[in-house]
Structures are given as structure tokens and as C-alpha cells.
């Protein structure tokens, strides 16, 4: 009997009070959860403008993503210092990359494709933390939401690959935006630096992997006997040009020289 009472005492509390205590203890995590929800909400409001101005929703989605990135960056690098080491660490952080992403497209006319990566990233992380919040309410609460979260987590690899593909496709798209007068001349150059940082990301290899997959697919298409010589030469030239632009990856500490 004493053992049972001890187990009940040690078991974590569930319910609204536990949910409230968790929110108080994890303020920044809950704030991130909220800003990610805002990114998704304003993306929906831009695509399906039920009320309000869709253009305002577009920029609000970018602002919400920028807020998410800034908060996450604060969690990862809380102590700011004006040193070369700090700058190097800053440039390697994925949250810094997407803070820059938001800033780039705040000065570009609304384009739906630019919201796709930040919407999908927000959805993955929002779903993951929603599961944590649901656990504070009880294991059997909101089973429908749990099922939806499970589906998102099951498809997380495919979602991350789609995000990486979107990042890559946006590079030539920024050039098109200049030609139609919807972006400034510096946009492709700044976006190239963003894409370079994504390629060198230490925590997220998907952009690098998708680049490799696209190269293999393009090389295979160029090598097909049925592909016209002119098309093959164009494809190989494009691949060579992109390879020249690709940044060199930093070797991990301790790697063989």
C-alpha cells in the first residue's frame, strides 16, 4: 500500500494546472509555439483571405517567422559578443539563416512560394511541441490532434526535403522577380548567401542532399542516348556552373586534413 502511495506521489501531474505550470516554466518554448502558429495562421490568411488584407497577412507571416528565428537564436546563442568566434557560430545557426530569409523577402512583393518553407518548418515544430503540451493535459486527451501530429512526424523527412527543394528553386526565381519588377537587384545576391549557409548547415543536411539528388538526376538526363546534344550540353553547363558556385564545406574539428 505504501509503495502504491509513493508511486502516485511521484507520478507527474496531468490536467489544466500542469499545463499552466508548464507554460510558466517554459515561457520561451511556449512563445515559440505561439509564433509558429502565427506563421501558419497568416500563411492561411494570405492564401485564403477570409478576412483582412491578404498582403498584410503575407508580411505578418514573415514577421512571425522572423520573431521565431530571433527567439530561437537567443536560446542557442544567449551571450552576444563582438568576436570572430561568435560571428562564426552565428552564421552556422539555422535560426539565423531563416531570420535573414524573412528580412530578404520583407522587401520583395508577395510571392506565395516564399511562404512555403517557413510554413512547413513552423508546422513540423508546432506539431512536435503541441504533443508536449498535450502530454501535460493527459495521455488520452485530444486523440484527434495526436493522430494528426503523428502523421506530420511520420512525413517529416519528406517535408524537410520539400523545404530544401523550395529553398533551391527560389534562387532562380529571385532572378525572375527582378525581370518582372517585383524585387530589387540585390535580392538574388543576398539570397545566394542564404542558400550557401543552408548548404553548409551542420544540423540540417537536407539542402545539401537535395542539391546532390538534383545533380545526379540532371547528369543522368544529360547522359541519356535520346537526349538531344544541345540539351545535354546545356544541362552539363548548368551543373558545372552550379558546382563552381557551391561553397566549400567546413570540416568538423578533428577531421583529417
From TrEMBL:
Keywords: Membrane, Transmembrane, Transmembrane helix. InterPro entries: PER33/POM33_regulator (IPR051645), TMEM33/Pom33 (IPR005344). One of its GO terms (cellular component) is membrane. It is found in: Membrane. The keyword Endoplasmic reticulum does not apply. It is a multi-pass membrane protein. The chain crosses the membrane at residues 30-52, 98-122, 169-194. GO terms for biological process: endoplasmic reticulum tubular network organization; membrane organization. It comes from the Eukaryota. Belongs to the PER33/POM33 family. This is Uncharacterized protein.
Amino acid at each position: 500500500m505504501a509503495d502504491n502511495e509513493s508511486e502516485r506521489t511521484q507520478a507527474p501531474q496531468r490536467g489544466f494546472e500542469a499545463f499552466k505550470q508548464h507554460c510558466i516554466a517554459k515561457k520561451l518554448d511556449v512563445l515559440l509555439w505561439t509564433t509558429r502558429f502565427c506563421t501558419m495562421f497568416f500563411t492561411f490568411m494570405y492564401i485564403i483571405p477570409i478576412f483582412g488584407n491578404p498582403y498584410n497577412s503575407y508580411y505578418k507571416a514573415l514577421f512571425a517567422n522572423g520573431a521565431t528565428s530571433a527567439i530561437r537564436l537567443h536560446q542557442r546563442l544567449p551571450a552576444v559578443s563582438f568576436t570572430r568566434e561568435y560571428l562564426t557560430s552565428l552564421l552556422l545557426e539555422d535560426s539565423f539563416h531563416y531570420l535573414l530569409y524573412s528580412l530578404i523577402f520583407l522587401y520583395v512583393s508577395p510571392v506565395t512560394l516564399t511562404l512555403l518553407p517557413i510554413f512547413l518548418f513552423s508546422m513540423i515544430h508546432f506539431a512536435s511541441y503541441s504533443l508536449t503540451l498535450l502530454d501535460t493535459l493527459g495521455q488520452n486527451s485530444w486523440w484527434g490532434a495526436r493522430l494528426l501530429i503523428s502523421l506530420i512526424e511520420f512525413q517529416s523527412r519528406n517535408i524537410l526535403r520539400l523545404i530544401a527543394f523550395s529553398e533551391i528553386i527560389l534562387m532562380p526565381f529571385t532572378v525572375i522577380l527582378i525581370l518582372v519588377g517585383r524585387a530589387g537587384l540585390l535580392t538574388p545576391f543576398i539570397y545566394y548567401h542564404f542558400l550557401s549557409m543552408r548548404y553548409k548547415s551542420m544540423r540540417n543536411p537536407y539542402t545539401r542532399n537535395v542539391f546532390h539528388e538534383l545533380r545526379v538526376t540532371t547528369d543522368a538526363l544529360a547522359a541519356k542516348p535520346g537526349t538531344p546534344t544541345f540539351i545535354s550540353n546545356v544541362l552539363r553547363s548548368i551543373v558545372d556552373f552550379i558546382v563552381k558556385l557551391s561553397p566549400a564545406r567546413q570540416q568538423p574539428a578533428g577531421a583529417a586534413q
